[in-house]
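Model it.
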Amino acid sequence: MFLHVIEARYVRDYTVWLRFNDGVCGEVDLSEELDGLVFEPLRDLEQFKRFALACHTLTWENGADFAPEFLRERVRVTA
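Modeled.
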């Protein structure tokens, strides 16, 4: 089965809540992952908050995205 992000919600700061197609859901803090040319603009919290779901993962208007597997490895499971 290919891993997909099927739902995403902003939580706080650089943390998003995600639900995956394998049934796992939880929070991912991306504050330490915003390095490099494509991710640095997302340090602006207003830009960070404007994420969307596309191609089965979290994406931003500037072309930044994270692989669903990367996000799944970092999820902190919540009830």
